[in-house]
Amino acid sequence: MEQGQWREARRLVREAGRVVALTGAGISAESGVPTFRDAGGLWRSYRPEELATPEALIRDPRTVLEWYAWRRSRLSRCRPNAGHRALARFFLKRGEAGLVTQNVDGLHTHAALEEAGDAPPDPALPIELHGAVGRDRCNGCETRWPAEPLADSLPRCASCGDLRRPDVVLFGETLDPEVLERARLLAERADLCLVVGTSAVVYPAAALPLATRESGGHIVEVNVRSTALTEAATIALRGEAGTVLPALLDCC
Length: 252
Hints:
This protein is an alpha/beta fold. The protein contains ten helices and nine strands. It folds into two domains: about 5-35 and about 80-130 and about 175-250, TPP-binding domain (Rossmann fold, 3-Layer(aba) Sandwich); about 50-75 and about 135-170, SIR2/SIRT2 'Small Domain'. The chain is elongated and about 60 Å long. It starts with a helix and ends with a helix.
């Protein structure tokens, strides 16, 4: 990669008053998080698209909750990598704008907690567009709790008695409009959008970098390959997030 690209990318980061980062599956793949449709994606005889739906939750809640318990057990062995930690350090230090993720693995939150050594401020904590596997929420009143091991009986909300389910957006469900609005405002007000490990083709998340550009800001892409967003980016840095982000952010 040309040194001129690195200098320009660092300059954009250094001079930006507000920075927003959008991350996807690519950053967590380096931590061993399996992608949703990886080669080992079959569980029993089901595909994710059959299980991660509201209809499946109604039809066969036990099987759906067992699948999520299996996913949680796999994620429990994964730890934040150098890319997660570099973003956490950056937003702990800079504080302006913040972090938006499409991932549900909770690794950005773990990284912020590790780097802060205490309760991290909001800019270092991610806006989780699709929720988090490590939380439960009530399917009725939407009360949230930390995830608990699955017992013999289906988990129920103590307040309303409805089913407790993973706090994630299932296929066919819409994103929480308040969460999406928070992310949109960050992107619109940012001078720089850092897009990491995502192809940026699935809307509405894909609109966030473009909102920054349309407001006069820049896009810096970090990915191992070209994406649909590459042509819109001011700078495209090729490489794994765990290598590129510390080199880009720790000096700014």
